[in-house]
Amino acid sequence: MPSSAILGEARTNYVTLCHNDTQLYQKGYEDNYKPIIKILSSIISPSDSTSTSSSLPAGAHVLDVGCGQGTPVGSFFVEKGLDVTGIDMMGSFIEEAKTELEKRRQNPNQKLLLIHTEMLEFEPPPGETYDLILAVHLFYHTPVAEIKAMLLRFVHWLKPGGLFFIASSLPEEFQDRKLWAEDVQLYFLGHFYTHVTVGSPEAWRKVVTEAGLDILQFKADIIKRNFDGELGGGNDTQVCLLARKPEAAEEDSALFNPLHGPFPLVPREHVGPEVDHAGCKTLYAHMDINRILDDVAVALKERSANSVGYIGLDLFNIDKENKWSDNITAFDLNSESNLPSDPTALLFFWALHRRHLLTHFDELSKKLGKHLSQVKTVITVQAAPDSEGFHLLNDAMHGLPFHPYHHGYVLHFMEKRFKEMGFVKVKYVTSEAVFRFGEKEGVTDLEEKIQIAVTLLAGTMKQPDAQDEEGLKNINAFKKNLEGLTRALFSHSNGVVRNQAVLLIADKEA
Ligand SMILES: C[S@@+](CC[C@H](N)C(=O)[O-])C[C@H]1O[C@@H](n2cnc3c(N)ncnc32)[C@H](O)[C@@H]1O
């Protein structure tokens, strides 16, 4: 399965190509936008009526993800007087979108915000939620696991009752696919694009439903790609799907979807001071971590790395004797005392998604200073995007001050930074580990497994005294919410949660 890191290059490629082809794209796809605008028109309430469950309220705020140059979709909502935030990873598109949307502004109070960002990195400003999120022809360079993760994020960002609209095309070359064509090559506008993902109408229906949204409108039209033959003309099936986030349901109602939050589950002050390390350690102790440790051991051995700086969880002492080189030194970023004197390899072990990457990187470069020139290999261990379910739970539980980075993004960032530093030979290895935090000998009942997991997870909180009414109330509310989340995760797996690790191994050229 490709991770977003692997897609790093494909995305860069895409940015360059896309920029050159804008006019061709817009001309070739004119017809595609007719069914899209038709559905979007149906959700605009006439100014003299109130909104309905399938229409937008007056003054609604729209988030257009992958907004491109802002026309014809974002601009449609600006003309209706609504607030629009557009995000896109291409800076030049964002600049053009700013001009296009400003031109159509209806009133001085209308909020128009355009942000140049990779969507994986985007977090709405604190407290901001949206009435409508758009993903129009967005996901062609996103692996399926990451699409699923993004949909869950979108659902968090929507108001209860908020709307989600997606349009995406399946080119005729892939019509035989029942669900996805992933990591394929596509000839389009005279170029070969690699690592492409395209989904069938059924695939979109399935992922949107699995994210807990109710489908309101669903259309699949055959649309001609209106290009000259040489540029890759043909027919596409374009899916347009409008869905709605259910109104917030009571926790004990069948409609309650724990993956929709509230997040964080527990305010920061109720998390024990030891949680960052001890809490993780408790969880990871319930994980079949040996496969990952073995993969790291193989990579270190192949490189005869005998002086390794380890940056990561406090797991280090659990297994190093058995698995890793004798000469690994744990390097705590907060103290320079144990900095290895002549490291030939660096190992980042699940250490990065909770840190501010840029600051962390600068700090690290400063501390390692001249030693960095001796380092020949950097290994970064993070998780694959489809481990999202577990991470959502873990993150929510810790009530983090900021949303942790997506693991795919961390890998993408590390690949880029280390390539710039001369570690140009890049390889990815995936291993699969399993969390068994609901398992206990002799226990087969799913509900009992949920209780075991909840007790374990709640054990990472500050434990209140018997007289501390407020504390007891908090911990009970936390457990109740956690029960829902755990049940949702376990319902597919009977108490075992898969967690795929991805190792990014970057070597300097020999
Ligand atoms: C085919 S264009 C569609 C633009 C616009 N939504 C429309 O329909 O006119 C896809 C857009 O999504 C953006 N995009 C793709 N992947 C993205 C990502 N991971 N983060 C942010 N933007 C992304 C691209 O830069 C591009 O502008």
TrEMBL record:
Under Gene3D superfamilies, the record lists: Vaccinia Virus protein VP39 (3.40.50.150)
Give the InterPro entries listed for this entry.
Answer: SAM-dependent_MTases_sf
The entry's protein name is Methyltransferase domain-containing protein
Q: Which organism is it from?
A: Clathrus columnatus
The opening ranks of the lineage are: Eukaryota, Fungi, Dikarya, Basidiomycota, Agaricomycotina
